[in-house]
Design a protein that fits this description.
Blueprint lengths: L1 E2 L4 E6 L7 H8 L8 H9 L9 E3 L1 E6 L5 E5 L1 E4 L10 H9 L7 E4 L19 H18 L3 E5 L3 H8 L5 E11 L6 H5 L4 H15 L4 E6 L5 H17 L8 H10 L4 E8 L2 E10 L3 E9 L6 H16 L4 E3 L13 E11 L2 H28 L9
Parallel strand pairs: 7-8, 13-14
Antiparallel strand pairs: 1-2, 2-4, 3-6, 4-5, 6-7, 8-15, 9-14, 9-15, 10-11, 11-12, 12-13
Helix pairs in contact: 2-9, 4-5
Length: 389
């Protein structure tokens, strides 16, 4: 597909192995670890996100039609299910199929199994509103050629959400997560001083009880993670999936590849009893953000989850001068621990006019409810002292 005016062409590839890491990462930039070649290729090469698991790669490359230079890229998958996305469209699929339609396959622009906001239209230095719109139009053309029912862009950043929302193709949807923001804190105690008295005492109590456990908490990088430690963490990961009656999407090999290809971004909080791993929290570090991803344990220890996932992440962000911690999907219990509600975004193109109209009405009403929810929580449930917020 070629745009004769701009001399740009679009083509799709079926694997990250078809594009060099250097070229892809020049478009992806350095701010978000999940859209880098190393992370996406680890998902594919480990068998976690492949056609066999319902994630058939159709990554979009934007190239100069003369030189062939890579100008932009988009991680895109054709899917036959809605697992591993964290922006739920099961109701849409059910309604469409009950009406005689075929919802799957659909196209998904995202990072598989990763509810973390970040760029989805990877344009390097050319990233601006106009180029977003050009690529947004091109994605709809790709979706039509793939003959899918719909195209979903999940967890884009705000500038992409705003730019593509101006196009007639896309419906805009809001979600909510809970993020911690660094207000130039100099220490964890400095952060605590900004909480109201009741919440401050509660956090201190939780941390004190963990400190009294016979547990050694260590913050490790990917370089520090041996195969034995990855084995232990994978066991924790599987335990968590079993306890929550969830699905374990990631294979054991993924974690080894993550340690090899994203070692500098991995921030692992590992908990030991007499040098035996008993729990762990996997984070990845971006340019100014620490992203919480997976947690697991072998035995229950009161408050250890909060310590490893939330308080250690805050401590790390303060120490390393990061602006925020994004602690993953769901969890209003995070609010009392300093993580405030923040909007997340998605965009949806629906081919069928009837389904498109129904989805448009739904997301409009849902946006109003989500905005009301966020403002209400900030006003009435914030743990921070009112004088400071």
């Amino acid at each position: 597909m070629t745009d004769p005016e701009s001399q740009m062409q679009i083509r799709t590839i079926g694997s990250m192995s078809e594009v060099s890491a250097e070229m892809w990462d020049a478009c992806a930039g350095q701010s978000n670890p999940f859209v880098k070649h190393g992370f996406l290729s680890a998902l594919e090469d480990s068998g976690s996100a492949t056609a066999d698991s319902g994630w058939a790669a159709q990554h979009v490359l934007l190239e100069d039609s003369g030189s062939g230079a890579l100008l932009g890229a988009v991680p895109l998958y054709v899917k036959n299910h809605s697992y591993g996305e964290y922006v739920f469209d099961w109701g849409w699929a059910d309604a469409y199929e009950r009406a005689g339609g075929r919802y799957y396959p659909k196209a998904q622009v995202c990072v598989p199994f990763t509810p973390a906001s970040g760029p989805r239209l990877l344009l390097g230095d050319a990233s601006d509103s106009d180029t977003h719109k050009i690529l947004g139009d091109a994605l709809v053309s790709v979706a039509r050629q793939l003959q899918v029912s719909s195209l979903h862009i999940t967890f884009p950043n705000k500038s992409e959400f705003d730019a593509l929302g101006e196009l007639e193709h896309y419906e805009q949807r809001l979600g909510v997560q809970y993020h911690w923001e660094n207000q130039d804190y100099q220490s964890f105690d400095d952060f605590l001083s900004q909480l109201n008295s009741r919440k401050r005492k509660a956090v201190k109590k939780e941390r004190r009880e963990v400190a009294e456990l016979d547990v050694d908490i260590r913050v490790l990088s990917g370089h520090d993670m041996t195969e034995a430690l990855w084995d232990a963490f994978y066991t924790f990961y599987m335990n968590t999936a079993d306890r929550k009656w969830g699905q374990a999407y990631l294979t054991r090999e993924f974690f080894s590849l993550l340690g090899e290809r994203c070692a500098d971004e991995v921030v692992m909080v590992m908990c030991f009893e007499q040098d035996k791993p008993v729990a762990g929290a996997l984070n990845l570090r971006g340019g100014d953000t620490l992203y919480g991803r997976n947690w697991g344990c072998s035995d229950d220890h009161k408050f250890l989850h909060f310590e490893a996932c939330y308080y250690q992440a805050i401590d790390y962000a303060i120490t390393h001068g990061l602006q925020r911690v994004e602690a993953g999907a769901q969890g209003s219990h995070k609010v009392q621990r300093g993580y405030l509600p923040a909007a997340t975004y998605s965009l949806h193109w629906i081919a069928d006019p009837g389904l498109r109209s129904a989805v448009a009405d739904f997301v409009r009403r849902e946006r109003e409810q989500t905005e009301y929810q966020i403002s209400g929580m900030l006003e009435h449930e914030s743990p921070y002292r009112k004088a400071e917020r």
